[in-house]
Amino acid sequence: MRPFRISVPASSANIGPGFDSMGLAVNLYLTLEVTQSEKWEFNSPSLTSNDNVEEHFIYQIAKKIAERHHSTLPTCKITETSDIPLARGLGSSASAILAGIELANQACELHLSAEDKLQYGTEIEGHPDNIAPALFGGLIISTLTDNEINWLQAPALDVDLVIYIPDVELKTEAARQVLPDSYSRDHAATASGISNLVVAALLSSDYKLAGKMMEQDMFHESYRSELIPNYDLIRKEAKSHGAYGTVISGAGPTMISFAPKGGGQTVAEPLQALLPNYRVGVLEIDMQGLTVE
Ligand SMILES: Nc1ncnc2c1ncn2[C@@H]1O[C@H](COP(=O)(O)OP(=O)(O)OP(=O)(O)O)[C@@H](O)[C@H]1O
Ligand SMILES: N[C@@H](CCO)C(=O)O
Questions:
Q1: 92-151: pLDDT as tens digits
Q2: 128-136 and 114-125 are packed helices; what angle lies between their axes, rounded to 10 degrees?
Q3: Whether the Cβ atoms of residue 219 and residue 191 lie closer than 8 Å to each other
Q4: How many Cβ atoms sit within 10 Å of the Cβ of residue 6?
């Protein structure tokens, strides 16, 4: 086996009303450096020296995918590095799942297609909104119907992204528990109208309208806002410094603003001063998705 390096970007799902169906790849990365070795070695920020490799989430995914293809992982030495914070709404689980799928793909020479990886990743994650952009890059609108995933990569967006990462975690599972099980027809019709308009506005480069409608989501934001520290403050202050719109990133607690191209720092600097315990920064959209070298 030749040594290889897997790189997977982080992602921000939902973009307001695109609940479970819209997401954007961003330039924070999980990487795995892999070489064949006499025995298993997994150097990872999430494993201590006493932990067994078999407990590692990425190893478990890779093993499952290899077994699904009647194959066995060769013993490897893996070094993981990541600047994607865990359980903060930046798709860490989707990036780790894809890294595991690609690890099995490369190490066992499974020759998986991109659609196979999307299908497997979505089965594990439950929805394609982080998996699809982390795999393909850019802004992806995707939907899972009858076990079939249809998706579209939008043309590049001309915006800066500003993210506000608090120093607390929020597990997706907990943030899904506060959501209603169902919505009335009226509610769903208005909510999907808002979502349709966000997509149409983004595709038309009408970022002002997109930002306005992003902030009117009716699928998840209002139910989750109490779980998100400084929710109202961040939205208000970001807008006053020029952001088009600010929403919860994925299931939170990170929030993300769309800002005019070149105007990200104008939003980020005063917000960082206001929120000293946060990591506030300007990110770019990653257009490549998962890569292997
Ligand atoms: N690199 C990794 N190594 C091991 N486990 C990981 C890794 N990345 C994510 N995980 C697991 O996934 C969990 C976080 O997943 P969760 O879905 O709650 O949040 P997220 O994916 O970061 O955010 P969101 O889905 O809202 O964008 C972590 O607590 C950890 O169990
Ligand atoms: N669409 C998902 C993203 C996080 O996995 C949610 O909001 O729960």
A1: 999 999 999 999 999 999 999 999 999 999 999 999 999 999 999 999 999 999 989 999
A2: 150
A3: yes
A4: 25
- Domains of the chain are 4-154+288-292 (3.30.230.10), 159-283 (3.30.70.890)
Q: What is the pTM of this model?
A: 0.96
Radius of gyration of the chain (CA): 19
Sign of CA dihedral 282, 288, 291, 293: negative
Task: Determine the Cα–Cα distance for residues 156 and 151; give it in Å rounded to an integer.
Answer: 15
| CA-wise closest residue to 256 among 231, 286, 289 | 231
N residues, the chain: 293
| Cα 173 to Cα 37, 60, 169, 251, distances in angstroms | 36, 20, 12, 9
Is residue 122 in contact with ligand 2, taking CB distance under 6 Å?
A: no
Ligand 2 center to 101 CA (angstroms): 20
Give kind and range of the element (H or E) at residue 151: strand 148-153
Helix (H, G, I), strand (E, B) or coil at 194: helix
Looking at ligand 1, which atom is closest to the CA of residue 85?
22
Q: Does the C-beta of 120 come closer than 6 Å to ligand 2?
A: no
Q: Which atom of ligand 1 is nearest to the CA of 251?
A: 26
Cα of 125 vs its chain's centroid, Å: 11
What distance in angstroms lies between residue 87's CA and the mean position of ligand 1's atoms?
5
ipTM rounded to 2 decimals: 0.98
